């Protein structure tokens, strides 16, 4: 069930990257293409079969997990600023791209790297599940989820406002889908803290969120294709 | 907004004799399935009654009056006031009239504008409500009908008003009961008993000062509507620029 969802999300993300390719070649919103490509990379690395293979190449020290975390950070940083600009949320944009946002993203990335080098991680383990007895690995996971939730929380109000605005129904559906996706990302942090974190629930939440945000972006594109043609 | 299906069928039997539902629908230009749905749900819309009534060449107002909630409708028909008539003249027709009068004043003679554009115009409902409003009409209509004021505003903004609310508004404002139905386009002016040419006549006898201030108000409202539309499309544009 969970692996099925993961492969489905990977297919969607790769599909979205391919679909953005012509637009990116023409120079239209290249950031979106890179975001989808990086999300595809992150999703692929969360699938155990792919993770083990890639980590094998990188020396079996779980460096692939660092790649996964940092690529997710990059996606959030790229995409979130665009979404904040799209829904006219200057405060959210400042919190992500402004001095505060830059401080948070650099601290999180530095934290991830520091915790990685402080941990003893010999032998590939998808999601670092085998090393949760080390406090540094637990901190590593929290930092990873923390930055995701921080960015998502910045975007929930902006997309939520657009979902209940006077925009056309399709644009509102797109905003709602993204809003639910970001709320899902925030929820993963809450669920992690409460301790009901079954692996299946966490996977369903994180991948469901990715799917919702991707669906929102696809809806925006559909609405763009159906835009009134100006003469 | 609806009449009970049973009562509708009894009325249909009375006016259409034994004609089959299929024949009635074909003549009235309603989909057979639409009528079927309404009969199954037990509620037939006033639009259906009006369409059937038109196809049988029966006066629509009389037909509506045979149903209990609208009994007083035919009796309550009255000629529209000048304000109501002017409210159903479109903004552009008002402007044309001003231009015509100004040209006539300068040159002594000018070709009069061709006929008025048909009712409803793009803000017919709002203009009519404003024309008949004694004071706080919208609030009392919303309270009376038990709907939220935002719900009523949304209808007005979309230039719509359910037949029931249109009749109720006319009643509360103390004007001809069918007049609101003309503004919503549910009835034609002739069906509501308005005399032919009464709009042009009202327009002609309006003093220029009043005409200009009325037009100014209308243009103001038009400006607000356009600003909203422009803001909305700018918002959609920003989304596309960033995410599409």
Describe this structure in words.
The complex is a heterodimer of chains A (231) and B (244). Chain A is an all-alpha fold and 231 residues long. Chain A has one domain (2-225). Chain A has 9 helices and no strands. Chain A has helices spanning 2-25, 30-46, 48-57, 63-86, 90-97, 99-118, 135-163, 169-194, 199-225. The termini of chain A are far apart. Chain B is an all-alpha fold and 244 residues long. Chain B has 2 domains: 2-70, 434 Repressor (Amino-terminal Domain) (Orthogonal Bundle); 82-220, no CATH class. Chain B has helices at residues 5-16, 21-28, 32-41, 46-55, 60-65, 82-87, 91-107, 124-132, 137-145, 149-157, 163-173, 179-183, 198-205, 208-243, and strands at residues 2-4, 43-45. In chain B, strands 1-2 form a two-stranded antiparallel sheet. In chain B, α2 (21-28) crosses α4, α9 (137-145) crosses α10 (149-157) and α9 (137-145) crosses α11 (163-173). Chain B is globular, with a radius of gyration of 21 Å. Classes of the chains: A mainly alpha (231), B mainly alpha (244). The interface between A and B is medium-sized, with 21 and 11 residues.
Key terms:
heterodimer; A: 231 residues; mainly alpha; 9 helices; 80% helix; B: 2% strand
Quaternary structure annotation: heterodimer
**Largest pleated sheet of chain A:** none
H-E string of chain A: HHHHHHHHH
Q: Overall mean pLDDT score of chain A?
A: 87
Question: Strand order, biggest sheet of chain B?
Answer: 1-2
Strand percentage of chain B: under 5%
**What's the total count of β strands of chain A?**
0
Q: What is the SS-derived class of chain B? A: mainly alpha
Percent of residues in helices of chain B comes to 55-70%
- How far the N terminus sits from the C terminus of chain A, by CA atoms, comes to 50 Å
Low-confidence stretches of chain B: none
Content of β-strand of chain A: under 5%
> What's the SSE pattern of chain B?
EHHHEHHHHHHHHHHH
Number of helices, counting only DSSP H or I runs of 4 residues or more of chain B: 14
Share of residues in helices of chain A: over 70%
Rg calculated over all Cα atoms of chain A: 18 Å
Low-confidence stretches of chain A: none
Structural class of chain A: mainly alpha
Count of discrete structural domains of chain A: 1
């Amino acid at each position: 069930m969970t692996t099925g969802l993961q492969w489905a999300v990977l297919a969607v993300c790769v599909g979205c990257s391919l679909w953005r390719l012509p637009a990116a070649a023409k120079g239209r919103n290249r950031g979106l293409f890179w975001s989808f490509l990086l999300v595809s990379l992150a999703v692929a690395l969360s699938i155990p079969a792919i993770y083990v293979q890639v980590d094998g190449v990188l020396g079996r020290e779980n460096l692939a997990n660092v790649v996964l975390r940092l690529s997710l950070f990059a996606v959030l940083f790229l995409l979130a600023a665009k979404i904040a600009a799209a829904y006219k949320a200057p405060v959210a944009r400042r919190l992500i791209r402004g001095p505060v946002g830059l401080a948070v993203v650099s601290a999180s990335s530095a934290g991830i790297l520091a915790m990685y080098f402080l941990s003893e991680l010999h032998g590939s383990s998808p999601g670092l599940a085998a090393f949760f007895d080390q406090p540094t690995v637990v901190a590593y996971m929290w930092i990873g989820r923390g930055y995701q939730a921080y960015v998502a929380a910045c975007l929930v109000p902006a997309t939520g406002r657009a979902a209940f605005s006077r925009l056309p129904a399709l644009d509102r559906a797109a905003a709602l889908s993204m809003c639910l996706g970001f709320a899902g990302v925030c929820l993963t942090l809450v669920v992690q803290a409460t301790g009901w974190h079954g692996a299946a629930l966490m996977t369903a939440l994180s991948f469901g969120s990715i799917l919702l945000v991707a669906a929102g972006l696809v809806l925006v594109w559909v609405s763009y294709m159906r835009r009134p043609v100006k003469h | 907004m609806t009449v009970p299906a049973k009562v509708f069928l009894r009325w249909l039997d009375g006016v259409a004799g034994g004609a089959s539902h299929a024949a009635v629908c074909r003549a009235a230009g309603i989909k057979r399935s639409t009528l079927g749905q309404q009969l199954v749900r037990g509620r037939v819309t006033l639009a259906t009654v009006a369409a059937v009534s038109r196809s049988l060449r029966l006066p629509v107002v009389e037909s509506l009056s045979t149903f209990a909630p609208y009994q007083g409708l035919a009796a309550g028909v009255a000629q529209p006031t000048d304000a109501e008539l002017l409210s159903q003249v479109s903004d552009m027709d008002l402007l044309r009239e001003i231009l015509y009068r100004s040209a006539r004043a300068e040159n002594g003679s000018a070709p009069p504008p061709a006929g008025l554009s048909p009712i409803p115009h793009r803000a017919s409902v709002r203009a009519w409500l404003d024309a008949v409003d004694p004071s706080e009409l919208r609030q009392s209509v919303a309270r009376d009908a038990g709907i939220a004021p935002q719900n009523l505003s949304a209808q007005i903004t979309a230039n719509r008003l359910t037949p029931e609310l249109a009749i109720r508004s006319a009643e509360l404002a103390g004007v001809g009961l069918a007049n609101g139905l003309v503004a919503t386009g549910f009835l034609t002016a002739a069906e509501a008993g308005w005399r032919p040419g009464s709009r042009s006549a009202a327009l002609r006898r309006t003093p220029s000062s009043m005409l200009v201030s009325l037009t100014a108000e209308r243009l103001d409202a038009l400006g607000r509507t356009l600003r909203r539309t422009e803001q909305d499309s700018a918002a959609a544009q920003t989304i596309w620029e960033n995410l599409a």
